[in-house]
Design goal:
- The chain contains 4 helices and 8 strands.
- It is α+β, with helices and mostly antiparallel strands.
- The protein has a single domain, classed as Winged helix-like DNA-binding domain superfamily/Winged helix DNA-binding domain (Arc Repressor Mutant, subunit A), CATH 1.10.10.10.
- The strands form 3 sheets. It has a 3-stranded antiparallel β-sheet, with helices on one face. A 3-stranded antiparallel β-sheet has the order 5-8-7. Strands 1-2 form a two-stranded antiparallel ribbon.
- Helix 1 crosses helix 3, helix 1 packs across helix 4 and helix 2 packs across helix 3.
Length: about 160
């Protein structure tokens, strides 16, 4: 997605970005290695107002797949809240960000969607990990573990 317009300032003073989706190509649904996306999550309780926690693109997809694998079918709001809860209040995800990840994962056939009734007795779309999604999750966990190992080795070398 290309952000080619200035941020909007809402009534509350919050800054919002408008995205021009005319330039989105089919590869936008896949992962792009090494790209940082500031819009994935906001750091909660940070001293600086508006400070953002940058996550590598694909990290949210990994979190969503892991959440669905662990908890079973969930609706988008439940997925977002569970990730926030597990982050010990480090992340605050908006539903739009989670929805974009869900659409990417569904497009890749790593999750499926079906309509159901939420705990609040409302109609909601529930997402479940597929067999292909479980295979992808295993690949992503392995890649994440390798990356985390590299970071640990580099930090150890710097401190030693």
């Amino acid at each position: 997605m290309v952000c080619d317009v200035p941020p909007l300032v809402g009534r509350s003073g919050a800054r919002h970005r408008r995205f021009n989706t005319d330039h989105v190509d089919a590869t936008a649904y896949g992962h792009r290695t090494g790209v940082l996306l500031e819009s994935y999550a906001m750091a909660k309780g940070h001293a600086r107002r508006g400070a953002k926690l940058e996550l590598l693109q694909g990290t949210l997809d990994l979190m969503v797949l892991q959440t669905l694998d662990t908890m079973g079918p969930q609706h988008g709001y439940g997925i977002a809240r569970r990730i926030e809860q597990m982050s010990d209040a480090i992340l605050k995800l908006n539903e739009g960000t989670v929805y974009a990840a869900l659409m990417r994962l569904q497009h890749q056939r790593w999750i499926s969607a079906s309509w159901g009734t939420s705990d609040a007795n409302r109609k909601a779309k529930f997402y479940a990990i597929t067999v292909a999604g479980k295979r992808q999750l295993a690949r992503e966990v392995e890649a994440w573990d390798q990356l985390a190992g590299l970071v640990a080795r580099l930090r150890g070398a710097e401190q030693g």
